[in-house]
Amino acid sequence: MSLEAFQLNGKNALVTGSHRGLGAAIAVALAKAGANVGCHGRDPKPGPSCAEILAAGRKTFYFSGDLADSKVYPGLIEKTVAEFGSIDILVNNAGVIRRAPASEYPTEFWDELIAVNLTAVFRLSQLAGWHMLQKGTGGKILNIASLLSFQGGILVPAYAAAKGGVAQLTKALANEWASKGINVNAIAPGYMATDNTTVLRNDPVRSRQILERIPAARWGEPLDIAGAAIFLCSSASDYVHGHVLAVDGGWLAR
Q1: CB within 8 Å of 48: residues ≥ 6 apart
Q2: What is the pLDDT of residues 191-229, one digit of tens each?
Q3: Is 191 a catalytic residue?
Q4: Can you give the pTM of this predicted structure?
Q5: Domain ranges of the chain
Q6: For the residues of 39-75, what is the DSSP string, one character each?
Q7: Cα–Cα distance, 100 to 251 (Å, whole number)
Q8: Which of 62, 73, 105, 159 is catalytic?
Q9: Which class is 3-247 in CATH?
Q10: Are the C-beta atoms of 49 and 39 separated by less than 8 Å?
């Protein structure tokens, strides 16, 4: 195998939640590897990722929409196909987190997290998968799971439930679509320095406890995800199906 197997020239991708954070890093990495990349976020205006994709010489667009609203899903996939001509890569990165004790966890928190972190992953995969099956040339679907796909966490019951579901959904879709040339895999990021972990990083006790548990002795950065994302979205991973790859600084090994 040559390094060309990691190239994405001629591929068309969509990365949800790519306005900032992990999604932005993944979107820019895919563009630098050769793909045209559509970006998405809840913010009405695009973030810097679109400009970086254009600077890499690739096509892009920005689609604003809240994935808690199921009406957004078809438009997001249709926009990608209309702009690029196909969807070859889908990265389901968008996610939210809400913290509260389980005995007091608000229904609206639960409903929002299951909708954004799990239902949207299935529906977007279903819609993108249909296009990939119709085209007949395969494709790559990459879901962003979590360490809480394996562990229960504290004060985040809906997030843990949704991310556990993402891991199982990844396997279920892989079982159906592997023989069709569609790879469905996931990355489980560790503790990353993003908006979702601001509360933890600002808590001196929790931040210290977390760092003491990470063998790499640091919080992860969005760019730490880029290599794994390129691998799982490229032909280098053509025989990898239904896998959840932890990128966690060694957390699960501790």
Answers
A1: 24
A2: 999 888 888 899 999 999 999 999 999 999 999 999 999
A3: no
A4: 0.97
A5: 3-247
A6: EEESSSS--HHHHHHHHTT--EEEEE--TTSTTHHHH
A7: 24
A8: 159
A9: alpha beta
A10: yes
